[in-house]
């Protein structure tokens, strides 16, 4: 049969079904492999492993395509809003006008935090990294919202998902306020999701905060660009944590912890720090040489991707958004010139060409966020805020799947074989 893969091992031939998705590579269904052959597959880093079935997001890394529920990211970034993308990811279809209004109102009404949570912030040092605060505070939500933690109940899952999406901007803004020693601001229901976040971050109680529409639009677009990205490391972490039946807030806290790493969400912070270190375009060749040197741990941050072997479509939108924000705020940042030049030099260098290393979403985002006024330590927090919808949508999809099992990878054991314990005086 054509839709079977043959495997010859241990002197026998086995057949495994080939499954087809709606688009993208077929997968060989090896779920019976161990039972039949007594052997595992070996794929550290999951470079050839589809860990789940999903109908949320599709990436064609060779073509630089990213679709959410079938819609291209470029169209969503240009024509949609973050609230609409959240609805789309959670429900599978774009909302009608009424559905969007009801959804936005629901999210708005969940933006406040339990008052007691403010005391958690006060336990952190003022110089704590806001991602450390996010991990702690989001994990602590598990101790607050007991009325919706039956993960087998779809209504409970929906309420938890709405709470997480709604409260994340409040949590993120409070992390920032705490670090600069300013009072926390309560959400303002008159504002949009993104406008409210900007006000809670940059507003002060003594003055009326005016949301600049162009900045609100750019920020909303940045949220759209980060909303979901298939089975990346933090999403897989959320799925793995959730597969044991863990509390949803604890699962998202696990996702935040994973996102923090510089190879993942932490790359936006690292990319801007790198651009600052490079400084002027004349220093670029030195850093390009360092990035190519196998004995030097330096890498071009914001460059390369496990899946994209072409320009990351999110980076394209990000690059054009830099110019819009500069124009709206009447600012300029010489680091943008350095970034453009660095991209140009790298894309013409055989090392980067052969390895198919292109700018990713994080390469230009830091320049925009910095122009808006965020310190670098907040960059990954913004990523976490926006990715929360992807995490909860993926978590919900997994829990809704009747065939869902606890995630339990196996290993190739290379340690000592069984041996007898030796008393301490005999060693
Ligand atoms: N600078 C220099 N060389 C690189 C880079 C880079 N940024 N990225 C990959 N390479 C080289 C790497 O040294 C390796 O070379 P060789 O084959 O000779 O050993 C080859 O390219 C393949 O790299 P890899 O590390 O095996 O690839 P991976 O798929 O495991 O890693 C990555 C992907 C994103 C972790 C990596 O490209 C990287 O570290 N990039 C910088 C960090 C970054 O920008 N991360 C953000 C990713 S996008 C946002 C997100 O999804 O979180």
Query: In which range does the helix fraction lie?
Result: 40-55%
Number of E-type strands: 6
List each distinct ligand once: carboxymethyl coenzyme *A
Q: Strand count, sense and closure of the main sheet?
A: 3 strands, antiparallel
Low-confidence stretches: none
The span between the termini is: 60 Å
Mean pLDDT equals 95
What CATH calls the topology of the largest domain is: Citrate Synthase, domain 1
What would the principal axes of the Cα set say about the shape?
Answer: globular
Counting DSSP H or I runs of 4 or more residues, the number of helices is 18
CATH superfamily of the largest domain: Citrate Synthase, domain 1
Structural class: mainly alpha
Looking at how many chains there are and whether they match, the oligomeric state comes to single chain
Radius of gyration: 23 Å
In terms of DSSP E residues, the strand content is 5-15%
Largest sheet, spatial ordering of strands: 1-2-3
């Amino acid at each position: 049969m054509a839709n079977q893969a043959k495997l010859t091992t241990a002197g026998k031939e086995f057949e495994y079904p080939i499954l087809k998705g709606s688009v993208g590579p077929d997968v060989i269904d090896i779920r019976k492999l161990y039972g039949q052959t007594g052997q595992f597959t070996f794929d550290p880093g999951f470079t050839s492993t589809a860990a789940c079935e999903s109908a949320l997001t599709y990436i064609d890394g060779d073509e630089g395509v990213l679709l959410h529920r079938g819609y291209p990211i470029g169209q969503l970034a240009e024509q949609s809003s973050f609230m609409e993308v959240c609805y789309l990811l959670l429900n599978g279809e774009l909302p009608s006008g009424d559905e969007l209004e009801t959804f936005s109102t629901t999210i708005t009404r969940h933006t406040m935090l339990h008052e007691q949570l403010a005391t958690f912030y006060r336990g952190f040092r003022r110089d704590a990294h806001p991602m450390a605060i996010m991990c702690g505070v989001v994990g602590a939500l598990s101790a607050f919202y007991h009325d919706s933690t039956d993960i087998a109940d779809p209504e409970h899952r929906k309420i938890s998902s709405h709470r997480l999406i709604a409260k994340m901007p409040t949590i993120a803004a409070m992390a920032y306020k705490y670090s600069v020693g300013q009072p926390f601001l309560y959400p303002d229901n008159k504002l949009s999701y993104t406008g409210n976040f900007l006000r809670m971050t940059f507003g002060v109680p003594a003055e009326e905060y005016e949301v600049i529409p162009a900045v609100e639009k750019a920020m909303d677009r940045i949220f759209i660009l980060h909303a979901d990205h298939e089975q990346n490391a933090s999403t897989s972490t959320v799925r793995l944590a959730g597969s044991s039946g863990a509390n949803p807030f604890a699962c998202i806290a696990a996702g935040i912890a994973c996102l923090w790493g510089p190879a993942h969400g932490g790359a936006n912070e690292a990319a801007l720090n790198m651009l600052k270190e490079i400084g002027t375009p004349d220093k670029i060749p030195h850093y390009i040489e360092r990035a190519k040197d196998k004995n030097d741990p330096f890498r071009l941050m914001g460059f390369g991707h496990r899946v994209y072997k072409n320009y990351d479509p999110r980076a394209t939108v990000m690059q054009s958004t830099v110019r819009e924000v500069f124009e709206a705020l009447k600012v300029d940042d010489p680091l943008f010139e350095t970034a453009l030049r660095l991209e140009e030099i790298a894309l013409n260098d055989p090392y980067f060409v052969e390895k198919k290393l292109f700018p990713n979403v994080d390469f230009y985002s830091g320049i925009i966020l910095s122009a808006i006024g965020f310190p670098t330590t907040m960059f990954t927090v913004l990523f976490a805020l926006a990715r929360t919808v992807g995490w909860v949508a993926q978590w919900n999809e997994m829990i809704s799947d009747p065939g869902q099992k606890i995630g339990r990878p196996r290993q190739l054991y290379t340690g000592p074989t069984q041996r007898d314990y030796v008393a301490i005086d005999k060693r």
